[in-house]
Design goal:
78% of the residues lie in helices and 0% in strands. It is an all-alpha fold. It has a domain of 121 residues: Four Helix Bundle (Hemerythrin (Met), subunit A), CATH 1.20.120. The longest helix has 36 residues. It is built from seven helices and no strands.
């Protein structure tokens, strides 16, 4: 009876997902080619990219959230927006490749964890692959953020530094 119950639960979940996905696709706003650049530095309602577009465009869950937070509210020139656009697009393929490597190693490590013949050396190698991929992405994001920071004016840099100082002070208070 237990297997039958599990089968029914999985079947019901599958049917719900199958019915929900087409509806969710219809609910998404249309994406325009220039939407990503238009969102930077604008305080208008059309700046919706800052909240949703990065996940849609780059295929990750707000991985550039720190960069977007750094740029929020700055009035970027067209040249600066173009620079941000170019930097973020240049980093995307390597970020995806590293994320794929991390996912594959994590999946293999989960399989190995439940294997009858656990191999400590293999588990260590997989763990190192995961760490290496995470570290590589952190370096790519850091380098990209610095490139974007260097494109800012001295006044904009000062605003970013003040914002980071406020965030650090909030973090120390708990």
């Amino acid at each position: 009876m237990s297997n039958f119950h599990g089968l029914m639960v999985r079947s019901a979940a599958t049917l719900c997902c199958a019915a929900a996905f087409p509806l969710a696709a219809l609910a998404q706003p249309a994406s325009t080619p220039g939407a990503m650049r238009a969102g930077y530095g604008q305080e208008q309602a059309s700046a919706g990219w800052q909240d949703h577009g990065a996940r849609r465009h780059f295929g990750r869950r707000g991985g550039d959230r720190g960069i977007r937070a750094m740029l929020h509210g700055l009035k970027l020139s067209e040249e600066q927006r173009d620079k941000v656009f170019a930097v973020l697009h240049a980093q995307a393929p390597q970020l995806r490749a590293n994320a794929k490597e991390r996912r594959n190693a994590s999946k293999e490590l989960r399989v190995l964890t439940l294997a009858e013949n656990y191999d400590e050396a293999r588990a260590q190698a997989l763990s190192e692959n995961i760490s290496r991929a995470i570290a590589a992405n952190a370096m790519i994001r850091s380098r990209s953020a610095n490139e974007i920071y260097q494109a800012l004016t001295p006044e904009q840099r000062q605003l970013v530094r003040e914002r980071l100082a406020r965030r650090a002070a909030r973090g120390q208070r708990g």
